[in-house]
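Query structure, 551 tokens:
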């Protein structure tokens, strides 16, 4: 029976997709998007539920494809964004299948930090939902036991075991301490009962994963066809993988050449490693890490305003502070609220401090990672004009669907793009060491891009990827191996560089069309006005004559 499209068919279908998505993914809706009516809920993880979701998505995809052609750019954009989002979710369920081959899938569902870190409701209310969440952990892990393949890739298996061990520590230490703050015997008793069962199920799950280690393999590669499909569905980059690799290798060569030229200017005859070692000595003290970073952010923010780089749409600053103990898995990162959060709207720029029980040598080694030049590059990426400023613009996007959808390549690609763009616009131009800091980060992302493609489509091993990172990102072996291992189960980590290159090409084409009328602030404001869509889709909005050459 043929359906006749109503006048509001597209908006209605978008709303239908959003509500169905929230129901199928309540942890994302609550913890990431800020929709607290989904607090305390875990998804149905049965095989039947996954099958129902696939059928539901295919039905919505068919109806979206049958909609009459839109007559305006904005409607075409929304229809294409809807189709892309449906296809990306179908790829995750039918091709990637993390619920069957990646134990981390279930660990991510058991993260209860959102109930603790944001004061969106009275503490007892949040803890009640946290306890409800924990009470469902045994059911989620039982589903994981049923769904996971017997033979798993060794890198993801070993990483998952460590992740679950960390989850136990987090429940027993940090979450327990947070519950104690409520000073409620009733909540404490409920929590302890839920925690005991959750921890027991976690230990049982770890035992299961450990038992599977002898059967583990290194066949982690998704293959060229799935890799191409991953890029086509998620990022709308529908190109031969060989072409994507060629572009990345050329960018790596350019950045390596520039790094060597910059280091030669700083001290003729010195190697890149020698200059990097000298740069790392200039870092904040343990006590000065947060205040020094906070002061620098004000400087960068004012530079954006004075030089008309991008509109700063709010006087509200992100809060620079030490990373809470239960979140110290990275050196520095931005933690904004979900786009639909209405109460706890603070954004936190976390910097992980030295631990008080470390030796002086350990403290010094940690602080060298925060040398002023690399730290400033990281702050540009995380805060201004990177993730935090992006978040401020997303808050102002009027369409809920555009607010919730985020392409990996835009979210991380935009932030990575700003690192290079700021120096191009003259920020910190008086000191070449800032360029070294920017290039250090660019080379790491270049290497992620290349080893991701080669490990998943050309048979590159973890050992070979480790050596590649050591040689081209100038890393020590331990962090290089960690980066290589991440690439085995996160092939999408090429998107930092991919998104940056897509945005640079869009900017170049937009500038060519505008000619003397090109305005950098206008360009940045326009791309941020659409949330975080795939860059190729943005081209259909910004360009009058898109020739289809996205890279």
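Result returned for the query:
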């Amino acid at each position: 029976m043929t359906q006749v499209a109503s006048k509001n068919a597209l908006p209605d279908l978008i709303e239908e997709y959003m509500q169905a998505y929230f129901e199928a993914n309540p942890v994302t809706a609550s913890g990431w998007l800020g929709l607290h009516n989904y607090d305390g809920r875990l998804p149905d993880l049965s095989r039947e539920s996954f099958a129902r979701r696939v059928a539901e998505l295919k039905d919505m995809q068919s109806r979206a494809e049958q909609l009459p052609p839109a007559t305006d750019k904005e409607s075409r954009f929304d229809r294409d964004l809807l189709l892309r989002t449906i296809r990306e979710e179908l790829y995750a369920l039918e091709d990637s299948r993390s619920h069957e081959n990646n134990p981390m899938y279930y660990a991510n569902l058991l993260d209860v930090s959102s109930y603790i870190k944001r004061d969106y409701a009275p503490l007892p209310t949040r803890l009640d939902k946290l306890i409800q969440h924990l009470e469902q952990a045994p059911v989620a892990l039982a589903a994981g036991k049923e769904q996971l393949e017997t033979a798993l890739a060794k890198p993801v298996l070993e990483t998952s075991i460590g992740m679950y061990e960390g989850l136990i520590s987090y429940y027993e230490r940090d979450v327990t301490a947070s519950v104690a703050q409520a000073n409620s015997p009733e909540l404490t008793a409920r929590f302890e009962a839920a925690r005991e069962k959750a921890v027991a199920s976690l230990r049982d799950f770890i035992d299961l994963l450990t038992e599977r280690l002898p059967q583990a393999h290194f066949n982690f590669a998704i293959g060229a066809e799935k890799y191409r499909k991953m890029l086509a569905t998620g990022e709308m980059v529908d190109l031969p993988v060989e072409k994507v690799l060629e572009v990345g290798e050329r960018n790596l060569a350019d950045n390596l050449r520039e790094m060597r030229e910059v280091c030669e200017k700083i001290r003729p005859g010195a190697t890149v490693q020698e200059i990097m070692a000298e740069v790392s000595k200039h870092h904040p003290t343990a006590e000065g890490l947060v205040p020094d970073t906070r002061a620098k952010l004000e400087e960068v923010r004012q530079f954006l305003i004075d030089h008309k780089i991008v509109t700063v749409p709010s006087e509200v600053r992100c809060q620079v502070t030490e990373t809470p103990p239960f979140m110290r898995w990275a050196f520095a990162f931005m933690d904004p609220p979900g786009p639909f959060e209405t109460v706890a709207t603070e954004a936190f720029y976390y910097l992980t401090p030295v631990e008080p029980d470390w030796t002086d040598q350990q403290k010094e080694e940690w602080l060298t990672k925060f040398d002023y030049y690399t730290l400033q590059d990281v702050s540009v990426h995380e805060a201004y004009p990177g993730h935090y400023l992006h978040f401020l613009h997303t808050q102002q996007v009027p369409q809920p669907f555009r607010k919730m959808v985020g392409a990996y390549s835009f979210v991380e690609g935009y932030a990575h793009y700003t690192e290079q763009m700021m120096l191009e616009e003259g920020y910190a131009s008086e000191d070449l060491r800032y360029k070294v800091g920017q290039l250090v980060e660019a080379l790491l992302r270049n290497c992620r891009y290349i080893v991701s493609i080669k490990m998943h489509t050309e048979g590159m091993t973890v050992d070979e990827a480790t050596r590649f990172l050591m040689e081209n990102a100038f890393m020590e072996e331990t962090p290089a191996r960690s980066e290589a291992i991440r690439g085995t189960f996160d092939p999408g980590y090429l998107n930092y560089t991919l998104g940056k290159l897509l945005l640079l090409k869009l900017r170049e084409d937009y500038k060519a069309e505008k000619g003397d009328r090109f305005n950098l602030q206008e360009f940045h404001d326009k791309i941020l006005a659409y949330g975080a869509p795939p860059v190729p889709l943005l081209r259909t909005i910004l360009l009058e004559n898109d020739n289809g050459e996205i890279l």
